[in-house]
TrEMBL record, chains A, B:
Zn(2+) binds at residues 259, 262, 363, 422. The gene is hisD. This is Histidinol dehydrogenase. Its EC number is 1.1.1.23. PANTHER family: HISTIDINE BIOSYNTHESIS TRIFUNCTIONAL PROTEIN, HISTIDINOL DEHYDROGENASE HDH. Binds 1 zinc ion per subunit. One of its GO terms (cellular component) is cytosol. Signal peptide: none annotated. Substrate binds at residues 237, 259, 262, 328, 363, 417, 422. It catalyses: L-histidinol + 2 NAD(+) + H2O = L-histidine + 2 NADH + 3 H(+). One of its GO terms (biological process) is L-histidine biosynthetic process. The keyword Translocase does not apply.
Length: 434, 434
């Protein structure tokens, strides 16, 4: 059974804090293994990459064979049924349109001193996108990483995907084609991250690496940060559903399970103001679990990490929602109530409003990004977006008059900080001593 | 003597690549020490923090004594001479105005399906700002971190500054007062980063940690990333000056030395199209070094890490500028030429245009931020800004009709990915089987 908490009961604060403090991240000691792999690929390049790929993915090829030829990609992509192709194309169009609306505008103005100031956004030259392979294939994640990079204007997008036993997924190939990935490499794990960060004889280095992966991939990304940029570190999925008693319990149960089915360490939480309704949802979860293909995973997640929190007033639940700071928050209530609560919430990766917006719509076709902050990172981070594929450059231009007006203050501060050459570079232009 | 390269000479590419590949980061093996300190502060809280502060900063106090009382801050700040106070106030006003111009706007629109989509920016609740202490005191860095956080709307800003032998710097206290830091703690090093990330009995945890520090601070920030957000990892300072022969060599020499004086591992590079001019700058650097207070540091930096690169045409130098991807780029030439070259440059933390815009103006009073990407990180990152203190939440709201239009595609993709509960959460609302 999932944890049950009552926000009105004595002891709630203590239990709720303990719940928030639970660590769901798999605590594998992968750091040393990853450090060795990264150093080895950095040093030996292709030779190391080929060895690790043979060892971990059972793919025996030379370095040239690591790249998926365009013809092979096209042939595989052509196998995808028309309905799935149309769905991917719709998703790509909508992701593109939404992300285009988020493009930042350059700023430039001249202030009263005559100083021209600006901030200008330019795309990264090249990006590496990590796509998990193996048992699960997520073409939607290809779109969520590659489309925003294209919208930002990135010229070179190198996608890596491990292919255990050499098997490539047609849907992933089609998604790469639709989104416009420039290169596809059949490599994965820490060795793929190292190859993208430092380059090898065959693979050119990139400027940033994005995309989800297992603990080895996450540790490798953390290790190469600085050499290249990285996006957020993805943890287990989460959903928090705030639902009133007028919902169909089966709908809410399906929503809770939609994240629980990702992984046993995923977390699904229901906030309700009606005990009977909450119990009905619990029962609906149990009956859904009888028919779900991934019932084993979803059931373990719900039992071990799930929670039902009863509150006296859903309209006043924002502080609890904020403390959970979930990846996905669903507000299953009438539109006006959902809007009002949404305005009060400060910490959430994405918010889904009303009874007809299941979280899964955001995973595929809403247009928003499904790469979102987990493990309470919504306190300080948003999801992946175009900004991740752009960087800002500041612009400053002083006229002689502007420097005459601003220079003395800068000189005073340089001297206060004991930085003589800083001061000299200003004083010499003002024809002053420093 | 600094390295001299000629872009027209055979072998340039090889020498230039080797120059770019030089690692100026101090390669101290601090990771294990930092891991122990962070784990200890996380586990033992105040007790560990007090012990480390006594050991490293020779400050013997209980946990309560770690906080600087408002009265003490005010008393110290009041000692700052009026000219420096006015300079700090001018800098703060200008930083505030420029950063206000960078505030992102919320996006919200309803598309043709009737789906409402949005992106909304909210400030972080709390931020920790690391301010280096000891030999160098940088009040300007206090402004550069705290003012953008205030502009973003952060409610709680906790500043930490190590105070070796208990000595607090009046200018740093005044800058904290002007910028509006809410708490000041006399702690530093990895122990301060750990205290901010996890909290202790006395210090509340924060959501993000920004600010420069030594190798221990950088390693600690990297380690707590995920628990809290962090800003970019600051490396040794850099300046790249692109200058034509009509500049006064002494002005350019002063600019090159303004970054060289930060640290022996700093890097100053001159790109020129005139050999005689470049030599004159080299001579001017030598004579400046005779009078600079920090000549030892600046001279070592110039000799060991500096470079002069001769190019046939400054107007075509953008590709070389981009490969260096420097923290600061100065374009010391006529306004029209500077503007034209500026448009071609893709990778730079900040660009300073014309003969009358020494980089140091950006360190203090231009209004732009002086926390900028180093070590070629300008390829993928901009400097500190208001965006670092905000996070984005996506908003999705479907009407029943919109879900009917978009749902089938989402369902097709969920089934293609083998995620049954994702599909169910949509199908159940469409009254379809999945």
């Amino acid at each position: 059974m999932p944890l049950e908490l009552d926000a009105s009961a004595p002891g709630f604060e203590k239990e709720f804090s303990a719940f928030l403090g639970r660590n769901r991240d798999t605590d594998e000691n992968v750091d040393r293994i990853v450090a060795d792999i990264v150093a080895d690929v950095r040093k030996r390049g292709d030779a190391a990459l080929v060895e690790y790929t043979k060892k971990f993915d059972r793919l025996d090829t030379d370095a040239k064979g690591l790249r998926v030829p365009d013809a092979e990609r096209r042939a595989l992509a052509a196998r995808v049924p028309a309905e799935q192709r149309r769905a991917l194309e719709l998703a790509a169009r909508r992701i593109e349109a939404f992300h285009r609306s988020l493009l930042p505008k350059d700023v430039e103005f001249t202030d009263t001193t005559g100083t021209r100031l600006g901030a200008r956004y330019r795309p990264l030259d090249s990006v590496g996108v990590y796509v998990p392979g193996g048992t699960a294939a997520y073409p939607s994640s290809v779109l969520m990483n590659v489309v925003p990079a294209k919208v930002a204007g990135v010229k070179r997008i190198a996608m890596v995907v491990p292919t255990p036993d050499g098997v490539l997924n047609p849907l992933v190939m089609l998604a790469a084609e639709i989104a416009g990935a420039d290169e596809i490499w059949r490599i994965g794990g820490a060795q793929a991250v190292a190859a993208l960060a430092y380059g090898t004889e065959t693979i050119g280095p990139v400027d940033k690496i994005t995309g989800p992966g297992n603990a080895f991939v996450a540790a490798a990304k953390r290790r190469v940060f600085g050499q290249v940029g990285i996006d957020l570190i993805a943890g287990p999925s989460e959903i928090l559903v705030v639902a009133d008693r007028h919902n169909d319990p089966a709908w809410i149960a399906a929503d809770l399970l939609s994240q629980a089915e990702h992984d046993a360490s995923s977390q699904s939480v229901l906030i309700a103001d009606d005990k009977e309704f909450a119990r009905a949802v619990g029962r609906a979860v149990e009956s859904e679990l009888k028919v779900l293909p991934r019932a084993g995973i979803a059931g373990a997640s719900w039992r071990d990490n799930g929670a039902i929190i009863l509150v006296p007033d859903l309209g006043a639940s924002a502080p609890i929602v904020d403390r959970i700071a979930a990846e996905h928050v669903e507000l299953a209530m009438e539109p006006a109530a959902a809007d009002a609560l949404c305005r009060e919430i400060r910490h959430a990766g994405a918010i889904f409003l009303g009874r007809h917006t299941p979280e899964a719509i955001g995973d595929y076709v809403a247009g928003t990004n499904h790469v979102l902050p987990t493990s309470r990172a919504a306190r300080f981070s948003g999801g992946l977006g175009v900004a991740d594929f752009l960087k800002r450059t500041s612009i400053v231009s002083c006229t002689p008059d502007a420097l005459a007006e601003l220079g003395p203050a800068a000189l005073a501060l340089a001297e206060a900080e004991g930085l003589g050459a800083h001061g000299r570079s200003i004083a010499i232009r003002l024809n002053r001593r420093s």
